[in-house]
Amino acid sequence: MAARRPNRNKTVLVVIAGVVMLAITVGLRLADPPFVAAVRELTFDYYQRLWPREYQALPVRIVDIDDASLKEFGQWPWPRTRIAKLVDRLTELGAASIAFDMVFSEADRTSPARFAESIDLGGTPDAARVRALLSRLPDNDTTLAETLVDKPVILGFAALTNKSGGLPQPKAGVAFAGTDPTQILSPFASALTSLPKLQEGASGAGGISLSHADTGGVVRRIPLLFSSGKALYPSLAIEALRLAQGASGFLVRSTGASGEADTGRPAIAAVRVGAFTIPTTADGELWVYYTPARAERYVSLRDLFDPQRQAAVRDRLEGNIVFVGTSAVGLNDIRATPLGGLVPGVSVHAQAAEQIIAGTYLSRPDWADGLENLITVALGLLVIAALVATGPVPSAVIGAVLALSGVAVAVFAFREASLLIDPIYPSLSALVVYGGAALQQYIVSDREKRFVRRAFAQYLAPELLSKLEEQPDAMKLGGEMRALSIMFMDVRGFTPISEMLAPQDLVHFLNTLLSPLSDAIQLQAGTIDKYIGDSIMAFWNAPLETPDHAALACRAALRMREIVVELNAADAFGFKAGHKPIQEVQIGVGINTGPACVGNMGSDRRFNYSVVGDAVNVAARIESSCKAVGSELLVSEDTVRAAPGFAYLEAGEIPLKGKSQPVALFALAGDQALAATPEFAALKTQHERLIAAWHAGDGWKADMALTACRKAAPDHLATFYDRFADRVATIRGGKT
């Protein structure tokens, strides 16, 4: 019965493990939990770190309420009258628009009337007169509101998730083409706005809130539009652009508009403000493409009021969009960017305006997620296929090359088209798939190796067994036809030997003889089939294929003969020392080469790796003919053809038991080195004459050739030619 291979479904199990891991990673990508999004966005951050936007001298400046300005004008918050002076100064310097990255949501506590209420002047008549005098002075907020009128000033507002605030006063008209943007954008509950009188005086209102989609506290996107559910409001950046261009409103394009692809869900495609059309994400956000920090982008607010810097300040601010914000650490408006540094929050809005003017956009296309999922699946399947086809190390190299190629393509897409494509998740997914499939392959291979060692440890040399463990697919268990070289070895005269030895001595004799003979077989890559008393059955070319199996069998036989000679010379069996009637041991070895069926045979619980077939029977008959032929080593004609170059001597065609046709046999006299000597060449010439005369029935010539052969033959062929003498005698009528 053929034993089943434990790794019969090895490939299937590896593929299943890989596909399961691939399904998990693809499902995780489709769910897109925060940590997956964080990895993807970190990849996009590194794009910008390696290839940031190149700074250009564009008409965008930041008036910075820096530490020097706070030192000059006092701690924040400043009186609104100073803000009014700032607006007047910027207007005088020719600012195209003035955008405040701040909210003036509370009344100025330094206004005269509020100041009077906050101090204790007592109940004296003078106190009443002081309060009356202060209350008649202009209100600071009113002063600022009046200053804002007819000036291109934008006040910021912050979107809130609760209803504690109000709504900004609309300043710009918003038109749309396609789906109503208020049905697409998530509405804010309320907004933190500046005082109503300030909003009334301002020309614009812009949102300063940042994207909720960003992870890790890094500002990567800013909303360009905000929705209250009923009305739309612009961000600070595009409102500043609108006023700088003198535009009256915005045009929003969304799915459903002419020329816009239907993505399957409502989405915003672009926002147009004046001469600029800005591509957006589906949620109406802009990916900010940063430059490294540049000092020329900033103007210290202190310098605006420094008489010695007037000309330089005017050159830098005239005709520019001016964002007013702070870099002072104590005012807590510092943001992290993809470049890895910290910048004032106002810089985010200013850089957004810069890239809009420059027309330099980052794009995360609608099809990017689908493409990345497709790459994830394709890369995972390729890794599984490579692992099954080539093994762990080559497939790891293939996977690494594919992953690096994906990274290279993604980098090229960013450099050439500013596309944000994530190559990292597909690569990590492929690594997970490889790990799962490789682990399964290791488990199956380890089980397979244990099976191989259990099944073949008794048959094979350790070196061959290790090779078989590494190449388990080289064997086919369960029976297969294969060209084999089969050897049978038997001890000549074993019955008398067994009779003259005690049982324990007989066991010692067999172990002493069979151990080195077995080593000789295994050193020549032979597989020991079984021990049958004093006999060994072995074969070559299974379970591992060995193309020169016939030559290996012949070398093993020659070495076995040498071992017996060495054991006899050393009296390893103790026959001479024990004065046994038999002093030396002789063996007979028969080798045949031919097709046979090889495989595990037996029951499901107990089996042997063995070989059966006519070629096996012939090998056994050849070995049993060694005594009659007089040669210790006898091979078939098929073996001679399969292993040319050895020192062979034809032994004639001898009928074998169980065979209808006689089989040509050859004595194996030595290896290729002996065959190449002049002495053996001379012997072979005389031997061929002997064979020719014998076949011709010419007793006289046969006798002459036999005499020449005996003179030229080495000692171990003496018995071989003695048996030939008997054959020659038969063709001479019994005369020698």
For the structure shown, list the relevant keywords:
736 residues; alpha/beta; Alpha-Beta Plaits; 4 domains; seven-stranded mixed beta sheet; 25 strands; 46% helix; 19% strand; rod-shaped; disordered N terminus
Could you please describe the fold and organization of this structure?
Pfam families: CHASE2, Guanylate_cyc. The protein has 736 residues and is of the alpha/beta class. The protein has four domains: 10-51 and 364-451; 60-353, no CATH class; 460-674, 2-Layer Sandwich (Alpha-Beta Plaits); 677-736. The chain contains 26 helices and 25 strands. Strands 18, 19, 20, 21, 22, 23, 24 and 25 form an eight-stranded mixed beta sheet that branches. Strands 1, 2, 3, 5, 6, 14 and 15 form a seven-stranded mixed beta sheet that branches. Strands 4-10-11-12 form a four-stranded mixed beta sheet, with helices on one face. The model is unreliable at 1-7 (pLDDT under 50).
